[in-house]
Amino acid sequence: MYRLNQANRVLRYLSGRILLASIIFSLPGLSIGTEKPTASAKDAGYEKRTEWFRQDKFGMFIHWGIYSVPAGEWKNGKDHAEWIMLTGNIPSPEYEKFAGRFNPVKFNAREWVKLAKDAGMKYIVITSKHHDGFSMYDSSLTNYDIVEATPFKRDPMKELEAACKEAGLKFCFYYSVVDWHYPEFPAKYCQNGFHGAPNPNADLEKYVTYMKGQVKELLTNYGPIGIMWFDGGGSFSNAPMAQLIHAQEIIELIHKLQPMCIVNDRLGLPADYGTPEQFIPGQASKNLFEVCMTLNNHWGYNKYDDNWKSPETIIRNLADIAGKGGNYLLNVGPTAEGTIPEGSVKTLREVGKWMTKYGESIYETTTGPFRKLPWGRCTTKPGKLYLHVFDWPTNGKLTVPGLKNKITKAYLLDDSKAKLHVGQGDNSEPVISIPQTAPDAIDSVVVLEIEGKPEVEVTASSVQQMEDGKILLKAADATIHGDTAQYESGGGKDNIGFWTNSNDFVEWNFKVSRPGGFSVTIAFACEQGTGGSEYTVAVAGKDLSGKVRETGDWTTFVTDELGVVEIPNAGQYTLTVKPRTMPGYAVMNLKAITLVPVRK
Ligand code: FHN
After folding, report:
1. What pTM was computed for the model?
2. Domains recognised in the chain with CATH numbers
């Protein structure tokens, strides 16, 4: 039982993360199932099949199903959407009636694809089947699908695939692993144990056979598929999902049918990329990732939700995400008539205008070299830095903190391509002379052509001593060494987590202007039953020792005092946190280290 508990806790700690099974299967003495460890995401075909994904950067997510018939409204409220079957507690026989009312006569695949293309999007991921179990494509394995069960009688996926091919966009499928309608899907693995027609004899193995059959249909009948975007939606909680659904076999089936199809990280196994949802990671990632986000507050159509994100938010998100090496998958939720809500269209049209002018600074770019920039973000291509300036300096000077490279040319990426003078600041950092008025109100792009690989002074990402003398070393400002530990934010987290390899360590660079004695404190969280890791904090030539105590869960943070260090001189310093032991499956969630001046 302990082993399963341990495995469950690992699953919860790492849920939906790329390294899940490789960690589980590497845990000493912990074997949770028959699934042999998956081929790592970095298998031989990885680079080739992910090349387009790393270049294209921006895609359209489409959540479309018979849940668009009630359009977010049900007996118990108006805030529903694609989850309405569960949130409205609608039994299958009643929910199925929506199919008979689903007739999207205004659906026009070319129009949808044109909207995506004009917005600068390069791929489309559409729900072939969401948690409600309704197949939005012509499946030979069920009559509960758009061709047999609705008056529409057409297969929109065929039409969308053809329109994408014509327009040069990648066509991709979302597929929900959890199924609230299929009689062989056990309610116990559904979210909150909800199923539209719970069957006490449900056999998950039979459902997995059905799911594999549908995956095979999707990868056989619709041409080249860019991504299989699996989703569990929080189902299988406290259960070894990857083992139960034979995830490894599904990945192998996909690669057998379409070796170039990439797979996201929601089958519970190492996959081709990670899927932070509704938030942007705090710093660049070593692994590929794709931020998926709604344009309003719902994935599926809700007729009351007009809380549309502005073009500014979307464009700046895109620059932020691309500057961290990620992709942006932005969602639309079409109506039951087959139209895309006007609020989405308006924002996407404005985003498209910016992308037409500045797309070069997004497509085929990768992570910028700066930890943070006071005025915006940075994306790069070999020999080029694209400075995304959100806050245009009014003094005509754009400072590029810490850049060490020789700049051979600087210019605006707008229509003028106006050349800009490059000077030097007090600390010999580049200072670009720029026009008084920003070329773009949302994100003006300045291009620096440089010699060699981007190099930035460590001091540029140094944490500065605060007015009150404190030195606050936050997780978001840390440099993380190793393959598992990573910065996580959103959902009450702003810490270094997934720290499941005790060889991984964390480092900060900071600047002391007022030397003296400092008390060193650490803010951390650790789930019950996972504590006990011992670690060393090394700073200014002194080692302080600490031991992780349990705080209850991964988001209950406490602060421990580790001791006092003397920093005799002003200058640049480094502090590291290195685990010495890790009795559990993770070291800790580390929020911050603070150096507090001690009064003599
Ligand atoms: O439960 C789903 C939700 O409906 C939506 O499909 C999102 C999109 O990423 N995925 C799950 C929630 O994480």
Report:
1. 0.84
2. 6-356 (3.20.20.80), 366-450 (2.60.40.1180), 463-597 (2.60.120.260)
